[in-house]
Design goal:
By secondary structure, this protein is of the alpha/beta class. Helices cover about 30% and strands about 25% of the residues. Strands 3-2-1-4-5-7-6 form a seven-stranded mixed sheet, sandwiched between helices. Helix 4 runs parallel beside helix 5 (about 130-145).
Length: about 190
């Protein structure tokens, strides 16, 4: 299987893992963030993740979380009900740098948020776009369990055609459109 079979090549674009090709299953159920959207997201964040704790929720391939790892995130948690792809990609990353600090959790996002005793500086959320309830339930759980640090940010991707209702507990800082993808940046009010 070559990268052209997938539509685009999935790679780490910056940092200590730059150039690492990531595994992406050939499946209509997996929709990793395209490199140009990922680059825009990290430009929004300021590119440097030094010392930050990252939650990559509904992580799929782990594309966003591994980009944060590459940019020196202190610890990245990957959470999904299917962790096969992120597990393969994390093993590949550890061949380049065995000292990366990651945790992979095979579980529902809401269960993870209920049990975790760590706060996140960055939360990436990218569930299947048609599952609006996952967005709503996850955002409610982030607020209910006080998951974000005081300067923390949530970045979620959705279809620009879908309207995701966001709790009044969050301030929508910015929205960006890239093709069919809408990237929304949220913070606590």
């Amino acid at each position: 299987m070559c990268s052209s079979d997938l539509g685009f090549e999935l790679k780490i674009i910056s940092g200590k893992l730059k150039g690492l090709s990531l595994y992406r299953p050939l499946s209509k159920h997996v929709r990793p963030t395209q490199n140009r959207v990922k680059e825009a997201i990290f430009n929004i964040l300021g590119n440097d993740c030094s010392g930050l704790v990252v939650f990559d929720l509904c992580c799929g391939t782990g594309n966003l979380g591994l980009e944060a790892v590459s940019r020196d995130a202190e610890h990245t948690f990957f959470v999904d009900i299917d962790v096969r792809s992120v597990y393969k990609n994390t093993l590949a990353a550890k061949k380049i740098n065995k000292d990366i600090n990651v945790t992979i959790k095979k579980q529902r996002v809401q269960d993870f948020l209920e049990r975790i005793n760590t706060k996140a500086d960055i939360v990436f959320l990218d569930p299947p776009w048609k599952k609006k309830e996952v967005y709503v339930d996850t955002l409610q759980a982030i607020f209910a369990f006080d998951i974000l640090t005081s300067n923390g940010v949530i970045i979620y991707e959705s279809s620009k055609k879908e309207n995701i209702s966001v709790s009044d507990s969050f301030l929508t800082e910015k929205k960006y459109t890239y093709g069919d993808t809408l990237v929304t940046v949220l913070r606590y009010k």
